[in-house]
Amino acid sequence: MKTSIDIDREAAGEAAEILGTKTLKDTVDAALREVVSAEHRRQLAEAILAGTLAVPTIEELAEWRAPKVPLGALGNERDPAA
Known about the structure:
Structural class: mainly alpha
Mean pLDDT: 90
Radius of gyration: 24 Å
Distance between the termini: 58 Å
Number of strands: 0
Strand content: under 5%
Low-confidence stretches: none
Helix content: 55-70%
Oligomer: single chain
C-alpha cells in the first residue's frame, strides 16, 4: 500500500543507523515491527511480574518432547545397536 506522509528525516536517519536499514521504507517498516515487538516484550514482562505467565511443568515438557509415533512404526529408523 502506498501512502504519502511527512517524515522527520533527521529522526529517520538516526533510526536507520540504529536499525541498520538503507531505505526510508525499510526504516519505517523496521521501526513499526520494533514497536510491536517492544509491546509484546512489555506484556511478557508484565505477565512474569504478575505471576500469570503459564509455565509448563516438567511432566508437561516431557510429554511434549516424547515421540508422537512409536519407534519402528514407520519402518525407516536405524537400529540404535548398529
